[in-house]
Design a protein that fits this description.
By secondary structure, this protein is mainly beta. Helices cover 0% and strands 55% of the residues. The two termini are 26 Å apart.
Amino acid sequence: MIRRSSEKTVERHEHKFEADGFITVRSLINSDEELNGSGRVFAHTTIQPGSGIGYHIHTGDTEIYYVYSGRGEYNDNGELTAVGPGDVTFTPSGCGHGIKCVGDEPLELIALIIYG
């Protein structure tokens, strides 16, 4: 199976989890069935400078970010740390996270949410 770029669902979210600004989410899969019931998100996310995804807690799922460009400030259960290209974050069920773009260029990441 091949997912052409034109087939991706693209959404703009403002103030995601009460964060400043907006993010753009391009779904790399379009349904839970494409992950065989193992997850709900596999997406390319763009966070504009000064924008972010607010702190939130995961319950019943795990989220992984792979940062491939830009600079961010990652909130890992209340601990702030810088992230950049090649970094991977991991937020298991019961833990929380948030991220914001702190550079002059957009922060680009791949997000994966799996169940369990």
